[in-house]
Design goal:
Elements lengths: L3 E5 L5 H14 L11 H12 L4 E6 L2 E10 L9 E8 L8 H16 L3 E8 L2 H9 L3 E12 L2 E11 L18 H13 L7
Parallel strand pairs: 4-5
Antiparallel strand pairs: 1-2, 2-3, 3-4, 5-7, 6-7
GO molecular function, one term: acyltransferase activity, transferring groups other than amino-acyl groups
InterPro entries: Acyl_CoA_acyltransferase (IPR016181), GNAT_dom (IPR000182)
Protein name: GNAT family N-acetyltransferase
Length: 201
């Protein structure tokens, strides 16, 4: 039986995490980047995210099978209670429930931090991604039509939104991820691991 672990990413994971990400740059429109990213640059990206938000990795028998994280949605201070979510899987580990397990833990964690709204930006058509987000309560906000050019075509970008809290009154400051209770996090990891199947379906 495979040994499955979910935990917060570490900066030492950057090289292996990037190996999961790079095929999406070169072969897909899931990310709109064109070129390979130097590992040291990718590590710095991770650090900037991890200073405030969760970045989860799923390991199967010691190999990073996938990861998910939240990052700032827009830069201005008034958007400080929003975030964007992303999930990427090693192509060997599709159809095992890893993406859904990571997302569920991720959303619980940012809710605990005090985030109000989560956004996802999806290059469409992408029926499985849209369905996954709808499963977790995301709704379609709008579409940027022909907003990006990649792999020989103009691409549309769908914006989806998940509201975690009612937007009433002045919000409390968002709690940085390193101040979230460790027992709460460990419990979320354990619950998520139980949702992952050990073999491809």
């Amino acid at each position: 039986m495979s040994r499955i672990t979910i935990r917060m990413a570490k900066l030492e994971d950057a090289e292996e995490v990037y190996k999961v990400y790079e095929p999406y740059i070169l072969n897909t429109v899931i990310t709109f980047e064109y070129d390979k990213v130097p590992v040291e640059v990718f590590r710095e990206r991770m650090k900037n995210v991890m200073d405030k938000f969760p970045w989860l990795v799923c390991l199967i028998d010691g190999e990073i099978a996938g990861y998910a994280y939240c990052s700032p949605h827009l830069e201005r201070a008034a958007f400080g209670w929003d975030c964007e979510c992303s999930v990427y899987l090693n192509e060997k580990y599709h159809r095992r429930g890893i993406g859904t397990a990571l997302y569920e833990a991720l959303f619980h964690i940012v809710e605990q931090q005090g985030i109000y709204n989560i956004y996802s930006l999806i290059c469409i058509p992408h029926e499985s991604s849209v369905a996954l987000h709808k499963k977790y309560g995301f709704t379609e906000v709008g579409t940027y039509y022909n907003t990006a050019y990649k792999l020989g075509k103009w691409r549309h970008l769908l914006v989806m939104e998940k509201r975690l809290k009612e937007t009433i009154g002045e919000p409390a400051p968002v709690i940085p991820i390193h101040k979230i209770d460790k027992k709460f996090l460990e419990n979320e990891y354990e619950i998520a691991v139980k949702k992952i199947v050990t073999t491809k379906q």
